[in-house]
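Chapter summary example.
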Amino acid sequence: MEKNFKKVLVQFGILDKAVIDASSIIYMRKAGYLSGLAAEIRLFSPNPVINETGYGDLPVKSVSISNEAQSNDHLIVDYSLTHQIPVISEDKKILMQIGRARRPYFNSLMMLNFLLFRHKLSADDHGVYFRRLTDFAWYSPAVLAYSKSIYIAMIDDMGCPPI
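The structure predicted for these 163 residues follows.
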């Protein structure tokens, strides 16, 4: 498992852009850290996906896709693979497709760890956003444990302050 931690931390170190799905946009906006993430990396999303969120004032670059007749999930996957950029999604099917293609992927919970890794959040702020997120977003015990493990690996490797 330690190799997974190292791999995630390396991915965090080079992450500068990602395609984001509607659920992650909604989750991070409701929790209050979408703008903070968008200030750190460039976020892209296909027009129909942005429309799905119901928000008009997002810090996400709307992108056109030639075949917008596809499902929004397919638009996210296609954009990621075509442009070779990571995905931020809560959808297990999307994440599995991106994983099979050996592309990096993250969820909203992991983006909290990313912001802490980049020293854009204090440990206290991380805890506040974590509680806000998990007040309405459900994550399996395994996903929560993995996120906590990444957090602990950051503490060990980088000396990040504990939550």
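To summarize the output: Residues 2-158 form a domain with the Rossmann fold fold (CATH 3.40.50.1010).
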